[in-house]
Amino acid sequence: MQSVSRAQSTGRPSVDGSLSTGGISTGLLSGGLRSFGGALRIAESVLLGSGQQTARRNAWDAVCENRRHAQDREDVHRVTVRSAH
Q1: CB burial readout 6-41, b (16+ within 10 A) else e
Q2: Where is the composition biased (Polar residues) (predicted)?
């Protein structure tokens, strides 16, 4: 029974392939909407298919990783410039 409630609360298709939105409304009524990020995740689960959600999350992860690499390169450049003087 836990797997069914977990599928409902995440908005993922249940075992029979149908999309359950019961967990979404239950989460909203019980205070599941606690942050702006939570609201975006709920809207995403309603509006986008799981493949689109995964693609968007992967793209955002790539953006964040690129930013980390850029920051690392900038830090190395600063250290190199300081040690040269």
Answers
A1: ebbbebeeeeeeeebeebbeebeeeebeeeeeeeeb
A2: 1-12
